Amino acid sequence: MLPYWPKIIQQWLSAAVFCLVFMSSCCAPTEPSLIFSYDDSTPFPNAIKCFTCTDKRSNRECNERAYDAFCPKGTKYCHTSHYVNQKTRESILVNKKCAEIQDCTMNTVGCTDTSTKHVQRCVSCCEGTQCNFWSPHNSTTAIFSTLTPLNTAPLQRIPNVILIVGLSITTRLLRLVT
Ligand SMILES: *[C@@H]1O[C@H](CO)[C@@H](O)[C@H](O)[C@H]1NC(C)=O
């Protein structure tokens, strides 16, 4: 029997390596992609839709060509970036997307000057399906509008902390027993 042991261990090792590779490839953070669905049933609970466009010249052009698709899992907000000439109030560039929480904070929204004179980039975030219909033109509209208070968001991380603490306590207890 003994000569067969290394082979079994080899098989276990290759299985373990395979699992690790598989898990790292499936769970690696990739750019979330839109979910196209032919019916209106949501692909997962709390799925939202956002107007989504890249480098359009106006709000209208953006919305006209926006995809009708569900946002990827993990995105909670709709994000709009609008380059606007504050003197002429002309739109220069509109980008809209589904956004994760790190793209939408009180610090990421608002209007900031660009290197071009009179041109500001105004960013707004909002919560709710297709809430980013309008593009923000000034600091009055370049805001973060949420349906739920923001300070509830960090609570979602607590279960992970409990899990880690629980695991370390369990492993320590197991060490004490053996
Ligand atoms: C932003 O624009 C709106 C409408 O054009 C205007 O009523 C408002 O006073 C502006 N706010 C600022 C801070 O300029």
From TrEMBL:
Q: How does it sit in the membrane?
A: Lipid-anchor; GPI-anchor
One example of the protein's molecular function in GO is:
acetylcholine receptor regulator activity
Alphabetically ordered keywords of this record: Cell membrane, Disulfide bond, Glycoprotein, GPI-anchor, Lipoprotein, Membrane, Signal
One GO cellular component term noted in the UniProt record for this chain? plasma membrane
The question of whether Disulfide bond is a record keyword is answered with yes
Supply the CDD domains for this chain.
TFP_LU_ECD_LYPD6_like
User: What protein does this entry describe?
Assistant: Uncharacterized protein
User: What organism does this protein naturally occur in?
Assistant: Patiria miniata
